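Example record

One chain of 609 residues, shown exactly as stored in the release files.
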Amino acid sequence: MTKSFHGLQTPQGFFQGDFMKRVIAPLSTLFLILACPIAPSGEGGGGDAPPADPADIVEDTVCPMGTDGGFSLCHLQNSESPNHIATGTTVAINGVVVTSPSFKIGNSESTRMGVFVSDDPVATWGAVLATYEEPDGYEVSVGDVVDLEGMADEFSFGAPGSETRYSLTSLTRTGATANLQAMPLSDGTVLTNELTGEAYEGVLVTMSDLTVTQTLEYGQFELSNGVIVDDSIYHHSAYNEEPLANITGVISYSPFENGYGFRLNPRTADDVESTGTAMPKTIPQLRDPAAEGYVETCPYNGDCAPVALSNMVVVSEAWVLDEDDDSGAPYLFGFFVADPTAVNDNGELLAFSGIQVAMAPGASYVATNSYTFGGQSDGTFAKPYSVDYEGFPRPGDVVNLSGVSSETWDMAQLRTVTVLEKLGTTDTMADVTMPLPAQFFGGNAETDANHPSVLRGGRPAVEAADSGGVSRDAVTASTGVESYEGVFVKLLNVETTEECVPYPYNDHMHDFGYFEVTGGVEIGGLFDHNYSGYWLNVAFDSTDRTCENTVNKCEDSRESGQVFGFIQGIVNYSYNVYRVNPRFDADIDGSFVAEGTPEAACASSDDGE
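Predicted structure tokens for this chain:
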């Protein structure tokens, strides 16, 4: 059949002209697109064409009829059909089946939502991405049979590349459901070709026996058949050479991400059947380069093979690692675990026996999670102290974990956690014992391997220009302290050598509540111990928060020369300093000042935290 494009004629059964809309936008336009909120060129506007009338449908050997002899999605997608629905035409298409959950289209500022729908049965040309505005609030589930009204549209950024879409004005659930079977696609290379891939746009397909050949930017990865997998709906944490028995998803078209082309979009974890298993490891094998079976640390934001940790013991409360910039709602939580097998004959933890866990409970890649993390009905999560730590990991919990061994800001971390399974507690599990902290004795010789100086955390130099005129020389960290990063430790018979250790902040030396004890060990405030007191009616970023200022500094127990029976906590690394962080008041065997001290300044409970 002869087709024309821009006045050109060519005798081809499958002519490029109909598919030149797939050409990528110029790079200058692309960068402008990425910097701005997505605004599809036809969506949201009215079409000039009159509404499509089912009474005008003629005999069609290209596309099947829809419900009750009406239009099908094939009529919207396939321009070869004599009943093709042109761009800008409003049309009702009934009895189609939802094949994906609803998802946001574009960046975080966009209010455009999408959901894939399909004719029944699944067939080439018989599916499309239906779009609508978020306030419309259409609620659907995969398998719902729906009646739709809307306009045939092409999604573009003013450049040749575009994607056929159905811009909805109405979506009605019929109450019926259908269990559509994905179309097996034995030759995935059809999706790597602009001509052959067009027929699969929007279609639910499944492919088998593939391998991840490379991970890409924006959460994408490439399969051994050349198909690019996107995470617009569901993110699978792929790693190079990961074997996949099956992968299923809907096909979209991208005019810009990693170049233009078709993308496979898995919808849930069930759509990706990986036969690669997380490697069983111990924490020392993640932390100690000299350990047999050591796993090299994955680069920050790199995609690496997951590891599995079994029967680990939680040794800290959870805290918020990161929160949403706009809402302030937490989404990433941290806690520490210890390897109960990495102990000496006394049951005390050894070097390299602990690690920080970074858990994103709302992430789509999470397969197993035994904790609620204060989950709310709107899908957000709560800060631990706001719900009395209910639903969060607690010291003594015994857990299985799967994730990626990595570092964030040079702090060892298990991230991209797909499995967090609580097995019980050290009180209820006969075969797992709560490990004792690694012990360091202030009375030992400084050259002793168990002297606190092993945990000397170092301190960067301070320039006068950064700190309101105060300068300070650098302190070198102990060569052994990094091996105790993330480890539960205990300092015995130590005393305060520097009652307040400030750091530059907002052009002054700020009191963060830190102090130093025997051996140059800095005591931090990652958790909520009260030894360093609080500031009354003094904002956190105030320049009044200095070591020298005692006005409105309440219940501060720090004092030079004070002797402690012990101080225990977790070693962390933050802003180039290692610190021991007591988890609660009971981790400090020392003298706490009386509540409300000094009484004259601290009569009110309205603090400035």
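Notes: The first helix runs from residue 27 to 35.
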